[in-house]
Specification:
alpha/beta, 2 domains, four-stranded parallel β-sheet, two-stranded antiparallel sheet, 10 helices, 42% helix, binds zinc ion
């Protein structure tokens, strides 16, 4: 973990004892939630996403995951952003299949400029930035969104890959060549967006593309929703 980050957290803890972001009980300086509250998240199952070499998700996007994600998606709750980044980082450390030391650049899924002005921030970029700080790696914007897409959540699973196809462009081909890149995202449902982002990075010469997200919709839940439609 990055030394400056540890120092910042230690100093903060000296003046304001660190408390759990859910229940408020006192917790160690480097945690965001107590052991009881962190268990409210259901661990995510493994998933395979085309063009993504290794995929890690911290939790299942169930009602609790959704409640927490709402905090960083709908209002710029800095604590929720840092908490999500910390949980993603911990999931990465725990995931033995991912070569965390081999990751050279951390990036994020971009938004169109107009959407970014409307919202005021790109929560994925904020989370990626903090995962990069924790992992002591640079966070670099490697992709640009070059056309509008419909929100993936309004589309059926089968329609999603076409919605994002060709939506991204790699703006830093030189930086990407031969590298192991980690894409950090907040929520993943079918994985179509991550798959397309990884495909573009590989087309630009990336050697390995991994992805880490805060929460992933379980396949079962997706299937249930499809049956209900
Ligand atoms: Zn708690």
């Amino acid at each position: 973990m990055n030394r400056a980050y540890i120092l910042k957290r230690l100093l903060l803890d000296l003046f304001y004892p660190n408390r759990c972001g859910m229940c408020g009980c006192e917790i160690p300086y480097d945690e965001y939630f107590c052991n009881t509250c962190v268990k409210l998240f259901s661990p995510a199952a493994k998933a395979v996403i085309p063009d993504v070499d290794h995929f890690t998700a911290f939790a299942v996007y169930d009602s609790f995951g959704k409640f927490f994600a709402g905090r960083f998606k709908n209002n710029s709750d800095g604590y929720a952003v840092s908490g999500a980044a910390y949980l993603i980082y911990k999931a990465l450390v725990k995931d033995r299949e991912i070569d965390l030391n081999g990751i050279e650049i951390i990036t994020y899924v971009p938004m169109r400029k107009r959407d970014m002005y409307r919202r005021g921030y790109n929560q994925c970029r904020l989370i990626a930035n903090e995962v990069a700080q924790l992992s002591d790696r640079p966070c670099v914007g490697l992709l640009k969104k070059i056309r509008d897409t419909k929100p993936q959540k309004v589309l059926k699973a089968a329609e999603r890959p076409a919605n994002v196809k060709g939506a991204f462009y790699c703006i830093k081909e030189k930086a990407v060549k031969g590298r192991h890149i980690l894409i950090v995202d907040d929520i993943s449902t079918t994985g179509s967006t991550l798959s397309e982002a990884a495909r573009i990075l590989k087309q630009a010469g990336a050697e390995t593309v991994s992805a880490a997200v805060f929460a992933k919709t379980s396949f079962q839940r997706e299937a249930e929703k499809r049956i209900q439609k």
